[in-house]
Amino acid sequence: MFFDVAIIGGGMSGLVSAIEVKRNYPEKSVVIFEKLDRVGKKILATGNGRCNLDNLTATKEDYNSPSFVSFTLEKYTPESNLDFWKSLGLLTVADSEGRVYPRSNSASSVLDALRFETEKLGIKIIFEKAEKLDKKDVFIINNNIKAEKVIVCCGGCSSPSQGSDGSGFRLLKTFRCRNTPLYPSLVQITTDTRFTKPLKGVRVKGRLTLTEKEKFIGKADGEILFADYGLSGIATMDLSRFLRKVSDIQNARIYLDMACDMEEKELLSYLVSHRNKNSHLECENFLSGILPKAMGKTIMKKCGIFLGDEAGKLTDKDIKNIIENIKNLELKVTGTKGFEFSQVTSGGIDLKEVDKFTMMSERVNDLYFCGEILDVDSRCGGFNLHWAVSSARLAAELKG
Ligand SMILES: Cc1cc2nc3c(=O)[nH]c(=O)nc-3n(C[C@H](O)[C@H](O)[C@H](O)COP(=O)(O)OP(=O)(O)OC[C@H]3O[C@@H](n4cnc5c(N)ncnc54)[C@H](O)[C@@H]3O)c2cc1C
User: For residue range 73-131, what is the model confidence (pLDDT) as tens digits?
Assistant: First the structure.
């Protein structure tokens, strides 16, 4: 069997690139290879089942490789992607932070829109894993399907139960395509659990700063969720992107600021006046005006304060110690929850081997990449699906 274009992987970038190829070149025959028994399984899990499919504020600076993504992002902006979705009959809404969701609030509408369009355009789907990719005068997939051009959209290694298990990188070994080291990203971070375990389920808003031997590595703001293994929540997931820059995890520390919207001076004056005005308040409730009660109690205990004492007994030194623990609490990092739990893979096909104006391989003519298989990643908020869609649309131009 011969096809003009074969697309390996039927996730977000595979489905979008198939549709766009067919729209750009209606005469071309297109086939998608998908290793699972259905396409787009991961799409259903995105955004907690709501699919945060884009972000109106997305710019090149939101990605690990601004110079590589700039051309794609300028050409396929969030607004142009929303028009793409509209052309599939899918209307969207954005929240105050620019996060875009389907109007139906359901990820299945996104997948349905993609599936109906692939059907309408006559795109063939073969439910088979692509295990072998060769090229003679044309590409040959699994020794029997021939194609003139191939777009590889296999994703990374994250969330392997949804299909992306790193097999794309193995498939490309024939062509000696290099990939950078792969790390789970947007993933929960494991830490020394003495502090976090008793706080399981408690959420705070704050800032996390990652250091290695006191050297700044990265920071992230937002919700932090305490767990029996360490930290979760959006700020933690965002911070996990920087772990690839740590050379020895033994030396990695997270500093937690649970009052990043308040200067130390401001916090000091609040706590001193709170103590003076409410001297009969039990210490276990002393911090409940600024932190969840369980967190307040844990911090007081950590500072060696007896919870049954009255606040009036707190010395200025106690208050300084409390502030240090609210604004600069140190946690020792031990690792992450791994690819199984990660939303995105950091690392991928080495960008030096890809033409950023076309997404074509610099080594192999007519071989294109898009989506997460490339060494491109971003934070939570719709930026990764923005990349999957925009890069798929560029690859589908089949230029080069
Ligand atoms: C739980 C979860 C929630 C997320 N939520 C969001 C969100 O709300 N917003 C956001 O922007 N990003 C989110 N992401 C990240 C986003 O889903 C990915 O970045 C995006 O799906 C990547 O698209 P892709 O097409 O490149 O890869 P994938 O979606 O991983 O698709 C790859 C496809 O290729 C198939 N495949 C792999 N190897 C082969 C092979 N050898 N042969 C045939 N088929 C193969 C796989 O089965 C899969 O269907 C989330 C991720 C997860 C796991």
Answer: 999 999 999 999 999 999 999 999 999 999 999 999 999 999 999 999 999 999 999 99
Structural tokens at position 306? 């007896």
Ligand 1, atom 21: closest residue by C-alpha = 12
Cα 54 to Cα 337: distance, rounded to the nearest angstrom: 26
CATH number of the domain encompassing residue 318 = 1.10.8
Q: Say how many Å lie between the CA of residue 345 and the centre of ligand 1.
A: 10
- Give the distance (Å) from ligand 1 centre to CA of residue 46: 9
CA distances from 10 to 22, 74, 341 (A): 15, 25, 21
Whether pTM > 0.85 for this model: the answer is yes
Is the same domain home to 197 and 108?
Answer: no
**Contact at 8 Å (CB) between 369 and 151?**
yes
- Closest ligand 1 atom to 51 CA: 8
Measured between alpha carbons, how far is 81 from 2 in angstroms, rounded to an integer? 31
What crossing angle do the helices spanning 316-327 and 264-277 adopt, rounded to 10°? 130
| CA 375 to centroid of ligand 1, rounded, Å | 14
Same domain, 18 and 153: yes
Q: How far is CA 350 from the centre of its chain?
A: 19
Residues of the domain holding 309:
281-325
Is the CB–ligand 1 distance for residue 193 below 6 Å?
no
Taking the CA of residue 162 as reference, the ligand 1 atom at the shortest distance is 47
Q: Is the CB of 188 under 6 A from ligand 1?
A: no
| Number of domains present in the structure of the chain | 3
> Would 266 be classed as within a structural domain?
no
